Amino acid sequence: TASESGRPLVVLVGPMGSGKSTVGALLAERLGAVYRDTDADIVATEGREIADIFVEDGEDHFRALERAAVRTAVAEHRGVLALGGGAVLDADTRALLAPLPVVYLSMDVEAAVRRVGLGAARPLLAVNPRRQWRELMDARRHLYEEVASAVVATDDRTPEEVAQAVLDAL
Ligand code: S3P
Questions:
Q1: Residue 159: pLDDT above 70?
Q2: What ipTM describes this predicted complex?
Q3: How are beta strands 102-106 and 150-153 bridged, if at all?
Q4: Which residue, by CA, sits nearest to atom 8 of ligand 1?
Q5: Which of 18, 75, 120, 121 has the least CB density, counted as fewest CB within 10 Å?
Q6: What is the domain partition of the chain in residue ranges?
Q7: pTM of the entire structure?
Q8: What DSSP character marks residue 104?
Q9: Residue with the nearest Cα to atom 2 of ligand 1?
Q10: What is the pLDDT of residues 85-133, one digit of tens each?
Q11: Gap from CA of 120 to ligand 1 centroid (Å)
């Protein structure tokens, strides 16, 4: 629709469990904007859950779907946009984000394990959450930092406090 054209007001990146969807919804409320997230776009388009896409077609296939979903959302969504935790792995996606206000919601390992737990719905953390989390963050931290125009630490902050810090950073 016509109101759905333009660029995102803010894009949230960061690992799973960092609060992108909770904080994103709060931000949308505060900004009088619409919240959207690319995981939900993919589930809607595919008609199946993310975990099922990973199991049935593999991570590479999911990443291709995600690249397309981010491209579409960035082109048409003039609101708050949250990306899946691994979206920054893709170089094309990182290039698309370069001109946008992108906030990285960071989180330490212990907070991650506490919030995401055994990650039944998150296929990447199923076996050894703490070790897998460290490996994941060692591989991704610099990518989140590369795309971010601001970093907001989420440890020991409520979602409301994180949302406020994001607004302050914009
Ligand atoms: C992933 C994060 C998930 C989802 C998928 C892969 C990742 O999104 O896209 O399970 O690679 O970190 P959330 O960060 O919204 O949980």
A1: yes
A2: 0.97
A3: parallel
A4: 84
A5: 120
A6: 2-161
A7: 0.91
A8: E
A9: 85
A10: 999 999 999 999 999 999 999 998 777 777 766 555 566 666 677 788 8
A11: 12
